[in-house]
TrEMBL record:
Species name: Streptococcus henryi
Helicase ATP-binding domain mapped to chain residues: 267-426
Known role: Plays a critical role in recombination and DNA repair. Helps process Holliday junction intermediates to mature products by catalyzing branch migration. Has replication fork regression activity, unwinds stalled or blocked replication forks to make a HJ that can be resolved. Has a DNA unwinding activity characteristic of a DNA helicase with 3'-5' polarity.
Name of the protein described by the UniProt record: ATP-dependent DNA helicase RecG
Pfam families: DEAD (PF00270), Helicase_C (PF00271), RecG_dom3_C (PF19833), RecG_wedge (PF17191)
Coiled coil (residue ranges): none
Length: 671
């Protein structure tokens, strides 16, 4: 047997049970050893006088009353008895576990794990322990058909076979010494079966460092590769023409816009390959900066392409580029175009008669050949996967890449999610923008809000109403939106036309509804969250979000950014009766500030990174043990260290780093 042996080779294992483990992505003995618990229950017996209200703990004592089972309702019952610990008598209850009654005998010592209720001097039992178990009990993530005990049994079998000693060290000795880290096999053993809490914490520290360090090594190596002088375009654009274009803009650029533009232009001029993220809050003026970068590429004789997530956004950008640069040839390319128009656009892109191209995913299809592509810009970066970004890069001679996002990403996360990129931030709003007034009301006040909306509609304003988010069920989401649409259609009958938009509609349908709203054919738009990204309706001044406490802060902020795009005063009304403290905190935070970066930091503290981005689709990595919010100091140190190692061009030949190079190659991160 060896690390790559299937787990079916372990003693007491058959192909059937091995198959179940595949649900947890456990195929080999190595997978099993590296499948760590996500927390530990402390099963050391405590005195009831030490316990805080609501604390989970193990208490031991002598049974002083017989076990009594009371039945109420279908399959519902409660088993109760009392135990004595020293002078204290404690009432114990187990719900729906009547079979435990046989194990409770008067005068016998028992150990119960449960939740302490201070006021009642009682414990709600979760588990009856045969005896006081080891101090610490691992808790693993499991799947249907695999119990905690089956998983622990399998891991024990691997340990009994001596497998933990087969794990090769993947961190260099200098780092183990410098940071006083356990060896890899010591850490793996202590993650599963620690002697005590102190040893577990040491193991955790080692594993977190390993995860974050390798993640950063990968990013920093990528960054160094992108930066190497040989593979970029040195664009010789005309500074004078660009400055004239800036002077001719109908508004002055803010300091933050100028700074970001300077950073982008410096990258484009250098021989290094640009890989930059332009981050700015909704309405901060990212598009004009991107347009000026496209103009710079044009003056240097290159084509540029701007890719956006939806057709309606592509049309919006096409219009604004045409207004900004009336003398240039600009093409639009979307999958919904008529065949003849698409053919003409493709031919013009290929022969170079087009200077700028705006489009959706259609821009990276095989049929699209560019004449001389120098700059690629993607808007709402986290909606495009890493592979799509790579395809775009391969479309030209390694064109410069600029990505834009209106999701304010806290610095903490920008380093992690986009660590291989340089980041430019537009952190101020253009002058003359009126801040959006945000109010939080309870459901009981909705009638008053709708009355006020009638007055706003009379002033020729338009209104968004966002239907509540039901995470668990798209069907319920839809039901809610339909019901809300019916109620509002009845309420505004004769006053306004109310439209409905939801996620199950085809893209063409959504675009049409959005276009009608833009053209003022409808005045009120009821929608699920499908309007989050970038669509510009300057006349929409009211945003009402129903059950706003169901949304995260960054989502609420994105939705609020749909209004406040014209000259009129805009409003956002949050309708919610939050039951939790964090729900109330989110409502207050939204009313206190319109600064997306402040809100993003608050969101991060309240919820952690995964929920902000919907980790699976955002390109933010999921770590098994590390948490990029909680373990930020380790992440920061790992980044500093990785950057330092990679800064030496010959680091891969340096014998000190041999284990790193070997590991990166094995993981497929290196060729």
């Amino acid at each position: 047997m060896h690390l790559k042996s299937p787990i079916a080779d372990l003693k007491g294992f058959g192909p059937k049970s091995a198959e179940k483990f595949q649900k947890l992505d456990i195929y080999t003995i190595e997978d099993l050893l590296l499948y760590y618990p996500f927390r530990y229950e402390d099963f050391k017996s405590k005195s009831v006088f030490e316990l805080a209200d609501g604390e989970k703990a193990v208490i031991t004592g002598t049974v002083v009353t017989p076990a009594n089972v009371q039945y109420y309702g279908f399959k519902r019952n409660r088993l109760s008895f009392k135990i004595k610990q020293g002078e204290a008598v404690i009432a114990i209850s187990f719900f729906n576990q009547p079979y435990l009654a046989d194990k409770i005998e008067l005068g016998q010592d028992v150990a119960v794990f449960g939740k302490w209720d201070q006021a009642k001097s009682a414990l709600t039992g979760m588990k009856l322990l045969a005896q006081v178990e080891d101090d610490m009990q691992p808790v693993y993530r499991v799947a249907q058909g695999i119990s905690q005990s089956a998983l622990v049994k399998a891991i024990k079998a691997a340990f009994d076979a001596g497998a933990v000693s087969w794990l090769e060290e993947n961190l260099p000795q200098v780092l183990l010494d410098k940071y006083r880290l356990l060896s890899r096999s010591q850490a793996a053993a202590a993650m599963h079966f620690p002697k005590d809490l102190a040893e577990y914490k040491q193991a955790l520290r080692r594993i977190k460092f390993e995860e974050l360090f390798y993640f950063q090594m990968n990013l920093q190596a990528l960054k160094a590769e992108n930066k190497s002088e040989s593979n970029g375009l040195a664009m010789a654009f005309d500074d004078k023409e660009i400055n004239e274009k800036i002077e001719a803009l109908p508004f002055p650029l803010t300091v933050a816009q100028k700074r970001s533009l300077d950073e982008i232009l410096a990258d484009m001029k250098s021989g290094a390959h640009m890989n930059r993220l332009l981050q700015g809050d909704v309405g901060s003026g990212k598009t004009v900066i991107a347009s000026l970068a496209m103009y710079a590429a044009y003056t240097a004789g290159y084509q540029s392409a701007l890719m956006v997530p939806t057709e309606i956004l592509a049309e919006q950008h096409f219009e604004s580029l045409t207004q900004l640069f009336p003398d240039l040839s600009i093409a639009i390319l979307t999958s919904g175009m008529k065949t003849a128009a698409k053919k003409a656009a493709l031919a013009a892109i290929a022969d170079g008669s087009v200077d700028m191209i705006v489009g959706t995913h259609a821009l990276i299809q095989d049929a699209v050949l560019y004449h001389k592509l120098g700059l690629v810009i993607t808007d709402e970066q986290h909606r495009f996967g890493v592979n799509q970004r790579r395809v775009f890069r391969e479309k030209g001679e390694n064109p410069d890449v600029l990505m834009m996002t209106a999701t304010p990403i806290p610095r903490t996360l920008a380093i992690t999610a986009f660590g291989e990129m340089d980041v430019s931030i537009i952190d101020e709003m253009p002058a003359g923008r009126k801040p959006i007034v945000t109010r939080w009301v309870k459901h009981q006040q909705l009638e008053t809000v709708l009355n006020w909306v009638k007055k706003e509609l009379a002033k020729d304003s338009q209104v968004y109403v966002i239907s509540p988010l039901i995470e668990e069920s798209e069907a319920l989401d839809l039901k809610n939106a339909v019901a809300l649409h019916e109620e509002l259609s009845a309420y505004f009958d004769g006053v306004a036309t109310v439209a409905l938009m939801h996620g199950r509609m085809k893209n063409e349908e959504k675009d049409q509804i959005m276009q009608d709203f833009k053209d003022k054919k409808t005045q009120v738009l009821v929608s699920t969250t499908v309007i989050e990204v970038g669509v510009n309706v300057p006349n929409a001044t009211v945003m009402i979000i129903m059950d706003a406490d169901r949304f995260g802060l960054s989502q609420l902020h994105q939705l609020r950014g749909r209004v406040g795009r014209g000259h009129k005063q805009s409003y956002c009304v949050l309708v919610a009766n939050p039951k939790t403290d964090s729900g109330k905190e989110r409502m207050k935070a939204m009313c206190d500030t319109t600064d997306g970066f402040v809100l993003a930091e608050a969101d991060l503290k309240m919820r952690g990174s995964g929920e902000i981005f919907g980790t699976r689709q955002s390109g933010i990595p999921e770590f098994q043990v590390a948490d990029i919010v909680e373990d930020y100091p380790i992440l920061e140190e790992a980044r500093r260290l990785a950057a330092e190692i990679v800064s030496d061009k010959n680091w891969q030949e340096d014998q000190r780093w041999a284990p790193i190079v070997k590991n990166l190659k094995e993981r497929g991160d290196f060729d």
